[in-house]
Amino acid sequence: MASDTKQRPVYVISIAAELVDMHPQTLRLYERKGLIRPGRSSGKTRLYSERDIEHLREIRRLTQELGVNLAGVEEVMRLQHELDDMQDEFEQEIERLENEIRAQVALPLPAPGQQLDPKDRPVYVISIAAELVDMHPQTLRLYERKGLIRPGRSSGKTRLYSERDIEHLREIRRLTQELGVNLAGVEEIMRLRFELDANRGRLEHRIADIQQDITERMTRWRELPAPSPDAESAGEEPQDQDQDGAHE
């Protein structure tokens, strides 16, 4: 798989530092902070993968181009690692399902996968949402313009916020007030959160579709009619007649 190649630890720290134009000590600091997760050789030497290099370049972009502080970078990279882990888990699940197809193992019917998650149901008008997260309604409008939240709309175009929107707003407040992350950093973090939520939904639906496909195939296979005894006998009659004729 392509992801296996990207995760393969191949670069020693001096080469990795050169590739991303950083000092090796900076890479060690980022590892201690949990921003990157290099592998180790049998001799305990740090070895960096292509994915580690991508993460280091993203850290440099966040800090140097966007001015995101270290707390914000930690949030971004934590979400990025979650996305990476989810992709790995998804690929492992697909491989497991493919093995089950080959082994002709039937799976139970999944629950309908296309229903709206209750957390995404838009129910709160802006005044209630603002009260729930202790913010001014105008702040919620600003965050919407920045793409940090995406409330739904009623048929009359009234903003309606879901439980997930409330969670996102509380997370924005934590990032800005407790961690001191600037707006550029918050935008990056929320973009990753939306991507994470969307990917999780897509992967769950994809797995459900595959399970449904396996179940339907197995059902069709089981329902194939068995050969009738008459058909089997018909296939044997010519041989029996020849034998009878030989006796005569």
TrEMBL record:
Residues 76-107 form a coiled coil. SUPFAM superfamilies: Putative DNA-binding domain. Residues 233-248 have a biased composition (Acidic residues). Residues 218-248 are annotated as: Disordered. NCBIfam families: heat_HspR_dupli (NF047377), HeatShock_HspR (NF047375). SMART domains: HTH_MERR (SM00422). Residues 10-79, 123-192 form the HTH merR-type domain. PANTHER family: HTH-TYPE TRANSCRIPTIONAL REGULATOR YFMP, REDOX-CYCLING DRUG-SENSING TRANSCRIPTIONAL ACTIVATOR SOXR. GO terms for molecular function: DNA binding; DNA-binding transcription factor activity. It comes from the Bacteria. It holds the Pfam family MerR_1. Gene3D superfamilies: 1.10.1660.10. It comes from Deinococcus irradiatisoli. Keywords: Coiled coil, DNA-binding. This is MerR family transcriptional regulator.
